[in-house]
User: Fold these one by one.
Assistant:
Number 1:
Amino acid sequence: MSGRSVDYVPHSADDVRAMLDVVGASSVDELFAAVPEAVRRREPLALPAGLSEAEVAGDLRRLAARNTPASALVSFLGAGIYDHFVPAVVDAVVSRSEFLTAYTPYQPERSQGVLQSIFEYQTAICELTGLDVSNASMYDAGTALAEASVLAGAQTRRGTVLLSAGVHPEYRQVLVTETAGNGPRPQVVPLAADGLTDADALQAALGDDTAAVVVQQPNFFGGLEDVAAAAAVAHQAGALLVVVADPLTLGVLEAPGRLGADIAVGEAQAFGGAMSFGGPGLGYMAVTQALMRRIPGRLVGETVDLDGRRGFVLTLQTREQHIRREKAASNICSNHALNALAALVHLTWLGREGLAELGLLCARKTQYLRGRLLEVPGVNAFTAGPVVRELALRLPLPAAQLVERLVPAGFLAGVPAGLVAGRLPATAAEAAALDDVLLVAVTEKRTRPELDAFADAFAAALGASPSSTSGVTT
Amino acid sequence: MIAPPLPGEPDRRTIYEKSCCGRGAWSLPAADVPEVPLEELIPEGLRRSCAPRLPEVGEIDLLRHFTGLSALNFGVESGSYPLGSCTMKYNPKVNEVTARLEGFSGLHPYQPEALVQGALELLYELERYLAEIAGLARATLQPAAGAHGELTGLLLIRAHHLAQGRDPRRIVIPDTAHGTNPASVVMAGYEPAAVPSDAAGGVDLEALQLLLDDDLAGLMLTNPNTLGVFDPNIAAIARLVHEAGGLLYYDGANSNAVLGVSRPGDMGFDIVHFNTHKTFSTPHGGGGPGAGPIVVRDILVPHLPVPVIERRDDGCYFLDYDRPDSIGKMRTYYGNVGVLVRAYTYIRALGPEGLKRVSETAVLNANYVLEGVRDLFDVPYPGRCMHEFVASATPLKEKSGVRALDVAKRLLDYDVHPPTTYFPLIVDEALMIEPTETESREDLDKLIAAFRRIAQEAETDADVLRQAPLTMPVRRLDEAGAARHPVLHQRFDDDGEACS
Amino acid sequence: MADESYPQELHYHKEHDWARVEGEDAVFGITWFAQDALGEIVYAELPEVGASVTEGATYGELESVKAVSEIFAPLSGEVVEVNDALQDEPQRVNEDCYGEGWLIRVRLTAPGQIGELMDADAYRAFLEEA
């Protein structure tokens, strides 16, 4: 038989024979004698036959070609995952095999590179959020939020968490699902007419069983919440404030720590991460000093070696599962370290000035586009107040319909909010009222000609619907 | 900025300490929309009052910094990495190519389904491959890590029992279990109960029976277990647990031993998680990201998280959210797709013969190393091992006070990453060694030689071992000091400059 | 670290804690054996003044780098003083476990329990058996 399929095992047949001799077995099969025949699989697995590297690469290319990447259209998709520019240095660094293929740094003497980069990443998150302690990364915003809720419950010894309806439906659903067996019971606080958390409803819901209040900034609809006010009422009731804070907009938005947040969590994919169909992204969590011993996930700390030389180590490991086991703050073991490194590289490339300029550019473009879109009859802003990277509009027809109409024109017009909420049990009840709401994200990648062309196509697509000021169309 | 060190001295400054005001690598297109000032865009209470103290360096300094950090590290391509239960095998480069194809990396999760059929096909097929390897019905690719898969599986067990009108509270786990197991059990709202191991290293059946009443929700096992032992009683254990109304969860961390040899579904397990960053070659990345997909038996399929990837008769894939008995969602969007593309590529490349060869060689290599070091240590479970084995450094401790920790640190001087130490908990001074299938004979001989040399040093020069490592960028670190007075981020002075 | 010792004037509990009775009060700490097993202590979690502790039940935790150990009360009482110096210098428990490394002082609520504790010789014998 000619050809050879992929084989990463270096041994030749001779090697195997010689090694079997050393081990004292006459065949490889003998090595599995301990496996009872009743559970022994004799037929080959029913999988497609192996391939050469050329063929498998070709197969993957064929599959990739069956997708249309967002870059092939003009995309305004957001809702947690954003199409920002990632500089080439990021991939150059994370592709280095000493970072890419390294294990968790449990042997610090041989892992100073990973450890120091995590320390630098933790610093960056603390700087962005204005909080004291960041962990070494988590999976995503949803699971980070679930962990934050459990933390608040453990810290306050209370049993309810108040979740603003402005928090991303997927994050809310993940919190509900993950804490179903163990954690504070979530309760929703609705939005007011201005698309922001209803302050009166929040006040009414607060009680002495409230462990935490959770708001998102910017919220799911792009609106800017009054975080300081939420902090004040939460603290007055003895509860913690958790802010789900988008990290990129923290270049222009106030740090949640400075506004009274006790915990900040969120999705940091925009820093250094490809959209990659939603994962792996980068969940982050930062807390105040008071919560340091309860934060889940790995922590890197600075120390010295026997010669007094500076070094870094995983520290406060007694919080974690490998030591505390059933009493651990969380079961998290593997995290998203490489994504954290990518984020660090991107933030280093941006620097203080670049991040602020980037945030400003996004805010300018977002507000410009909003202005243009609000000119279209029947289109209204869902949230009052400024927007910085994403906006929500009430349309005169179901948002999903408009999105569909604009694809052939070359636009991914945005995310229908009702669609996201409607298909998740935790938020399905809110979906009907959101059927006509569209989320439109604007990053620095969107040029003026694209924004203007979009606004024109948007108007045309709405003008094409049978005129009806009540908004509902067939 | 903190001044650079003198020539010849290593530069251990952080990126913040290398920063200099006014420097930067960034570039950005000019604003092509009206340049409204920030003050007009965002009101004062919401506007950033104090810029984050991010680094300020030029692009070449950025690269020199991270290149320098990478040189302090050790990856799979640097040398052997025999970490037990971690399966540090070769991470194929072709996987890096396929994961970066823009047709995968450039997809937004909320793109219309018609535009992402290739991605849905890949994920759908991957589920099928994993189901075949596991010997069970259907999978979910949502979990981002093994521990996350464990929590998912336990929540599925919970949903199953509740749907039957029951609420048993106990999950049994062996005393050899990885720490994530009991932690996951508590997160799911259950009570963990430990079952001891018998003299042969398997589950003590008599002790297990005492825990099987109608408060039993399930049992979590890994097989072969963390001692490297394949439990010969697995079928009996499965029967007993099922008879008591419980479900069986397979922690797939050790799957590298049994690919194509024995399937957890055939052993009697109801739920399996795989660690793609162990068994299926996806890179560890310094701690992650990995993926922990789970595969389940028919009875649990209705409870799988949404969305489930389905295929219509016309061959089109879609995301099915219409599943009323689903537990909900375990994470945002669909899974660590970038990681899953790598796992798919690996399975597709190896095929059934390749996967079987993986396990055969993993077991051969572990036994080869075991033969080479058996006389140096106490090996608690004699005879053959599977893909890993546990050795106790107690003989060294008794003769010369040298501990597993010292052995591990000295291995660093011999260009080998140390094995797992002090796990499982039931073995004193444990060294858990898993070479994996991608080590050549020379590298295995080198590993054995390093252990033999260290055992000799323990007799002749134990002090060297206690001082080890001696050739690394740093010596042993003051971990107690780091924990007593944690310094978890850069310090800055009042002017916003980094200080050490 | 100090040499192994078990002062005669103390009373010992099987969970490796000692009590020094001083009139109506007692001071608690952990024995040399316990601190040696734990390794370098990095953090002490102790109750607040006013809390009650119950004989045989845990009242706090001691952490080293790689382990956590619960602290058991040898006698029942109400906490009247806590060794706050351990917040900055938890290693005192290793260096001087019977002196500067004391943990809490309680007002005893059941002095009769003292009789159930071991003396130094009995505790040494207890360690030998284990």
Number 2:
Amino acid sequence: MKYMLLIYVDEVKGAQVAKEVGVAQMSAPYMAYTEALKKAGVILGGDRLQPTSTATSVKVADGKTKVLNGPYAETKEQLAGYYMIDVPDLDAALSWAARCPGAAHGTIEVRPLWSMQAG
Amino acid sequence: MEHAGRLSPDSITGAEDEARAAAETAARRSYGKLLAYLAAQTRDVAAAEDALAEAFARALADWPKSGVPRQPEAWLLTAARRKAIDARRRRKSAAAGETHLAMIVAELAEAAEERREIPDRRLALMFACAHPAIDAAVRAPLILQCVLGLDAAAIASAFLVAPATMAQRLVRAKTKIREAGIPFRVPEREALAERLDAVLDAIYATFAEGWADPAGADPKRRDLAGEAIWLGRLVAELLPDAPEALGLLALMLHAEARRGARRDEAGRYVPLGEQDIGRWNKALIAEADAVLARAQVLRSIGRFQLEAAVQSAHAARRHLGRSDWPAIVTLYEALLQMTGSPVVAVNRAAAIAEAQSPAAGLAALDAIAADPRIAEYQPYWAARAALLARLGDRERADQAYALAIGLETDPALRDFLERRRAALSAP
């Protein structure tokens, strides 16, 4: 089954840490993690996202397009990146989510992809 | 079944009865096994339930005519699987994809497999139902439905939830199992203990719901305690090396052994210390102690084993003439360290009162008085009232009894507390 691992972290704190230890230091664990996903042959894709300050939201209501400055929702932790993986079941997805560096200081939301092949 | 007034000849009635009884026996014994087996591959519990329901309906229609098959379980599985394949085929024919040939091949492979013993995947089913991704409140109801085949209405009334609400929760949980890809698998060793706790908690919650009806007035709830013990036996049998599974079974058996003694002939509440030992079920106590002894050999203590040991120390009144209070204090101390539960703290204080003195017990209660969780906990106030009464502080005992009575929901227990309260002013 295909799952999205959605990485939610406090981006303000993240930026502070990046300033203190350097971006390279901060992304090292993610590189190792990505490498492990590749070695296991489960990764379908993934990337880091620019901070929510770069976000623009679009909505069409009554035929009119509304463009809003900012993210969809103001939350304490923000979507900062994602991985898409293909593993046998939820337990396998959860164990990969637990290994994601973001899990240590944020939250990883695990969501199955909508799939038409079920049943 | 009602016989009177039936128009059909006796022989047919007899065959129908036999078929119905055979179907009911097969349902009770095999339902969970068949459902687990059918749902394990697809993870589609709802579809497996539908297929199984149709299979049982067909059994009731066919067996009176053609006789009860030699292997009812295998017959039901074949019938259910045919229904499931029909349903799948209907879905598939709309969406192009799998060829008809591939499906026939799969059917043949499945049919070949059927001749062998049906593997028991009930434990895997229970782990799926008690998965951390499933809302904790729906785990026990889900196990009852999947493993025992109880309907949503019966489960709802046992858990005091509106039937429509319960049905909706169960549907949502089954959808989650399918869509989120929750596996039907007994977890690996390192995750087993933690995940088994969730299964055992669900079984214990089932037992507690059944236990809440001590008079046995409500057959649905009384059954629930019996069903929980049945599930406990099943888990203990399938995981014989899991000490906590044995601990839970021992705990439930000890409690069940005293069910009849909890009320006197007039239906009044009888506290544990005043129960008539003659009304305890000796065979169940012996079985409980044997199960607990098997758990202790495995040398990994846990909450359920400690609670079962407390019950065992109470049952020791048969030989000692009184509960083994010093042992009970020690056991509750270990439980308190493990759980930090205010309920355990109250029980520990009550045991201290017996093992040492009422004043020491009251001091232990004072030590937890600031915990906000006990402000509305009836046993805390009842224990407090009883100790204050023994120490001669009638006024404060009266106040504590008033609070305990106000917090109690069981009429029999309320009546007991009222009698104790009235006894305060007796000369």
